[in-house]
Amino acid sequence: MKGKVLQLLRDHRDDFLSGERISEELSCSRTMVWKYIDSLRKEGYEILAVSNKGYQLKGESDVVSVHAIESRLIRDSMFQHINYEESAVSTQISAHKLDAEGALAGTVVVANEQTGGRGRLGRSWYSPPDTGIWMSMILRPEVELREAPQITLVTAIAVVRGIEKATDIEVDIKWPNDLLLCGKKIAGILTEMQADPDRVNSVIVGIGINVNQTSFPEDVKGVATSLSAMTGKIYHRAAIIAEILNEFQWLYDTYLTKGFSFLKPLWEARAVTIGKKIIARTPKESIEGIAEGIDEEGVLLLRDNNNKLHRIYSADIDLSKN
Ligand code: BTX
């Protein structure tokens, strides 16, 4: 409800909105309206109150909260349940738990901090408080097992577009799960599946974005950057989260109804590795060659130095120095 009050105030930014009008629109008492306004102010929203005129939103807050996100979602959002945790071990762990308890598809977990954030293959993901976006979505797509990794690519398009809408910053995609800004890692995507041999039960998609960090620990300093470190500005995390979720919805819908091939051009338009000389490192081997592109299923096509074409399903990619 607090999110709806905020949404109404945003819709009437240029004029005052009376307490009576808000209480009518939301079918709640004037006292409740006052309580919501008071609570929004405590979170840092600057709301002007003038007698006989009403309320006007003068300044946004950077607090990440459920209503700060919900108030920016499209009306028929598929993300009806947003769970916020001040500190989580990993939003992936929280989401897997909710999934096992039968959470609805479209449930999202957002944390202000992760104490055990994780990447692929047991690697860790640095997730300090107050500065980044650490979130996981629970999805239940009707796709075949081999198709599930495509969801990472769909998510990458949504994150790139969401960041651009909220901040005007253009980010690149590095197959399969990294987003780069000026060649440094600004975000990572971790897609984990619960599946039977023949069917996907759920897919938990984790998204980590460095937003307002100004420094990084020694071990990631060389590879990581944040939106703020690049521009010197502070960004509203809730606004970025909402734009990503809004973008994700139509992309996911298109993916489920028309297939990944329909979204491939959007992905390719932002992919930096394609056409370049790369090294793909898999647990079994390292292959060097030219990344020719991805196929209709999202598999990376790599032509090695002996002209042999490899289909790469999962790997770490480095640009070749040769
Ligand atoms: P990845 O395995 O591709 O990348 C992990 C590597 O990235 C690390 O080994 C380290 O070198 C580097 N790294 C660690 N932290 C950061 C950081 N903050 N910024 C840039 N580089 C970093 C990528 O895995 C997938 C990451 C997903 C993270 C999200 S956050 C929400 C959700 N919860 C969770 O525990 N993980 C996901």
Task: State the gist of this model.
The chain has 322 residues and is of the alpha+beta class.
Structure notes:
This protein has helices at 2-11, 19-26, 30-42, 66-70, 91-100, 150-167, 218-221, 227-231, 237-258, 264-269; strands at 46-50, 54-59, 81-85, 107-111, 132-139, 172-174, 178-181, 184-196, 199-210, 277-281, 286-294, 300-304, 309-312, 316-319. With 322 residues, it is of the alpha+beta class. Strands 3-4-5-9-8-7-6 form a 7-stranded mixed sheet, with helices on both faces. It has a 5-stranded antiparallel sheet with strand order 13-12-11-10-14, with no helix packed on it. A two-stranded antiparallel sheet has the order 1-2. Helix 6 crosses helix 9. Bound molecules: ligand BTX. Residues 19-38 bind DNA. Residues 67-256 form the BPL/LPL catalytic domain. Its EC number is 6.3.4.15.
